[in-house]
Known about the structure:
Layout: H1 3-8, E1 12-17, H2 23-36, E2 41-45, H3 52-56, E3 65-69, E4 72-76, H4 79-91, H5 94-102, H6 104-112, H7 116-129, E5 142-146, H8 150-166, H9 171-184, E6 189-196, H10 199-215, E7 222-228, H11 237-243, H12 246-264, E8 269-273, H13 281-297
Parallel strand pairs: 1-5, 1-6, 2-4, 2-5, 6-7, 7-8
Antiparallel strand pairs: 3-4
Amino acid sequence: MALLEQLARRQFLVVTGKGGVGKTLVTALLGRLLSQAGRRVLLLEVDPRANLHELTGTPPSAGDIVQVGAGQYLQNLRPRYVMEQVVRDHLRVDMLVRRVVASPVFQHFVDAAPGLKEMSILGHAWRILHGMGHEAKLKIETVVLDAPATGHGLSLLTAPLVVSDVINEGPFAEMAGNLATFIGDPKQTGVVTVTLAEEMPVQEALELRAALEARVKRSPELLVVNGLYPRVPESRRRAVAAHDDLWQRRRAINERELARMAAEWRGARVQLPLMPVNRGPELVDALAPRLAEALRTEGAA
């Protein structure tokens, strides 16, 4: 089965990797391809800087769900909103809800309890996919999360297990149990790791894989190697060397790390080139066909 078809069968895709490697770009690309494959997709980001809208050519979401295109939506999520929604679902009386969420005890609980903020992000995706809340009318089939950078991304994926160890009963304990099952099921949730072919990002990608296997008992479905420098054509090697060897040096680093990944990464890998295109919808337009072809034709690089 082609990788694109495998990913299209997942309800939840978590895109993570070292900061600056292109996680947001890959999130936008996957959203484009999955919506083209007929899925109703929500692109979800938690970075308050709200970068995804630049790639989709839409206004900032400001916490709301914004339509990007046919069957494709975008939201910049505020985790505290999700925690308050859990209270609303269980109390169902507006006056009580307002009192609880405004209380110092609740505020301290949300801020201090380990894993709760991370779990609220996962819980929001789970609620939408299960037709809960006012978002149910959108009938979202796949949520693609532009997750925090590697270390925080791992904390996000392990949060339900952490919360289950701390909270044993009540609505948050129930949520943690549901999410632990959801995240641990490779038929429902997929993890996409993004890296550059450079030493530190590759090292973090390998460490993330090992940590997921140890703590969540699963591996990423895909490694996307982003921003590859093209090979220097033979006809230009002398001219490049005469003026600036940066191109050749960067490609040499890429080659070294590609060989390392081939030796150490178990599983599917695809590659995306560095493109001379400004960041925005044009970059998504340029790279989406390349990623689509790689996912259709290769199980590994």
